[in-house]
Amino acid sequence: MTKRAGWVALLLTVGCSPKTPTATEILWDTWGVPHVFATDNPSLFKAFGYAQATSHANLILKLYGEARGRAAEYWGERNLPNDRFIRTVGVGGVAQSWYGGQTPEFRSYLDAFAAGINDYARQHPERIADSVKVVLPVTGRDVLAHGARIVNFLFLFFDQVKLPKTMSNGAEFGSNMWAIGPKRTANGNAMLLQNPHLPWSDLYLFYEAQLVGPDVNIYGATLVGMPTIAIGFNDSLGWSHTVNTQDGADEFRLNKKGAGYLYDGAVKPFEVSVEILKVKQADGSFREDTLRLKRSVQGPVLEEDANSALAVRVVGLDDPKGAEAWWNMGRARNLAEFEGVVKQLHIPFFNVMYADHAGHIYYFFGGKTPIRSRGDFAYWTPPVRGDSSATLWNDILPYEKLPHITDPATGWLQNANDPPWTVTWPMVFSPDSFPAYLSPRHMAFRPQRSVQMLLRDSAMTFERLVSDKHSTHMALADRLVPDLIAATRKLGDATARQAADVLEKWDREAQADSRGAVLFYFWVGEYFGKAGGKAFARPWRLDAAATTPAGLGDPALAVKSLSAAASKVAKEHGAMDVPWGDVMRIRMAGKDLPGNGAPGDPFGVFRNAYYIPDKDGRFRIVEGDTYYAAIEFSAPVRAKVLLGYGNSSQPGSKHLGDQVELFAKQEMRDPWRTRAEIEAHLESKDSIK
Predict the structure, then answer these.
(1) Cβ contacts of residue 67 below 8 Å, gap of 6+?
(2) Coil, helix or strand for 291?
(3) Residue 621, in any domain of the structure
């Protein structure tokens, strides 16, 4: 053991963590964060369920009702599409199978989590909306159904297969994460940045908590209704996730013939069943909806017409242990234990990034990637032919065949939803060393900005880590604005030349007071919408991944688009150089604050914020930075955190939107982790029996 490691080990044993609890209780701090203390794990899970219900009871019951495929029965006709989808893909059957596949020990934890929700509802019926009480009581199966719906079908299927084809506003599920080794930090401590980006509503909301039990002291966040911390840290280590470019779900186009479909030169019959769904009517009565389900050898049929059908196949539906894997990640004490959990591939999706107090950093292109017989990533992106067993996959690539690395020579790792090839720079993975279908080859502007910030700083401080996390610099502007200004001086009309003056003075930031960011935002919409794939003069290349594409592909169109955008901004917002925060607003819980940050892509902004038009012509934030944390693995651990929209969605809660002012000011807060810190900021306490 090195001298430094010895000191770290000593400090970690002299009271940096709360003492072992002697009873089960929830200590609520003044930000509405529950610190759950329990003497045994079932009690810990029960109290965690109780805590989540305290903060999100109405939302949890709604989400669990939807995951049952009974939302139309509970709340009416508008919920029928959800129920038909849940029944079609078989979420209920997956949850039942998963529940039976748990170890008796972890099954008791899931049941305890559900019991905590039920106990809260029983003790505080007045705090729960009458409309969602019909879902009670909830069960461990409901917890698993909710998880399957989110991870396997929302992230794996919709995000990777459906949403890229249908989303028109450019928004996408994403995240940033960094792990920086001791050789690249000023204090010689490893650092970790956790920074998921998701919508600010509904099933995407994160919940922040600390769980302290006999063998765990984990701080972090999970999606509301989930029973374990999914992004977290303890005294020894921490990890984060991003949505990765892994293809774990595919659609198959089937050619129908008679009552079946063609498969390997023969007609194979569909498996057919019928379910009757109850649909609540406005007068309280019910009607019946008949759902005729079909399954092919690939999986359930989602769509069909007279001649063809579309079936979907999703990985991980036969693996019940994703939640337990997250639980064990939080209990790990070192890299060997942590890697031992993730290499089992129980979590079907997500990149994993890690740092620890011993100075290790680690990345894994996680999930279950099918072993395919042919094709590259692009081949499997649209529906593939389903008339042959040659395209049917069953097995997955083992851990050893997936990109993963510990302690790269560069000293740092990053991911901002880019493929694994650019996890550090210079590259350590060659795409040609992996199956062509593993991941695409591209790098958007947000990960390029991520790499650029890490390359410039060889001695990262904790303060710089927090500052970089909030960077609103638009990397896209660096590539295009100089050329745009030059072209406008030659080709532009009076309006365009005036707009070029604004862009020349602009700091290329999306801070609340940045003048020129709104103009650039609208210009990008105009120019990219018309130029399509010819927007850049120099295309992206893997060997210049962080510096291409660049230059204007059509200068004349760019200048014309600038004139149009300038006229639009001046007309709708009063001036070409209107401040970003005057137009982009943070509106929630009765607050209306100037916004900062911008869509990560195509703008290349690390501080991710998506805005949509509001009724008054301005824009309001709906997605972007959610829970985020900057962590230095010193002794004791140093951290800053924030959950922008607050830690409760219950009507009347003081913690609904109570962190939004900090978000607007780009400030973070301390996560109180020791008993003394928590009690010094104590708001209330619950004793759980």
Answers:
(1) 86, 91, 95, 142, 145, 146, 148, 149
(2) strand
(3) no
Report the SS3 class of residue 557.
helix
Can you tell me the distance from the alpha carbon of 151 to that of 109, in angstroms, rounded to the nearest whole number?
20
CA 441 to chain centre: 21
In this predicted model, what pLDDT tens digit does every residue of 107-166 receive, in sequence order? 999 999 999 999 999 999 999 999 999 999 999 999 999 999 999 998 888 765 554 433
Q: How many residues does the chain have?
A: 689
Calpha distance 171→602 (Å, rounded): 10
> Nearest 5°: phi and psi at 246?
-90, 140
Residue 633 lies in domain: 3-247+318-424+628-687
- Closest residue by Cα to residue 620 from 669, 674, 582: 582
Distance CA 639, CA 413 (A): 19
> Looking at 596, 618, 652, which one is the last position of a domain?
596
The whole-chain average pLDDT of the chain stands at: 94
Tell me whether residue 340 is in a domain. Answer: yes
Those residues whose C-beta lies under 8 Å from the C-beta of residue 169, and which sit 6 or more positions away, are 610, 612
HSE at residue 185, side-chain half, CA atoms within 13 A, is 26
Q: Which amino acid is at 27?
A: L
pTM strictly above 0.85: yes
User: Of 267, 285, 314, which one is at a domain's C-terminal end?
Assistant: 314
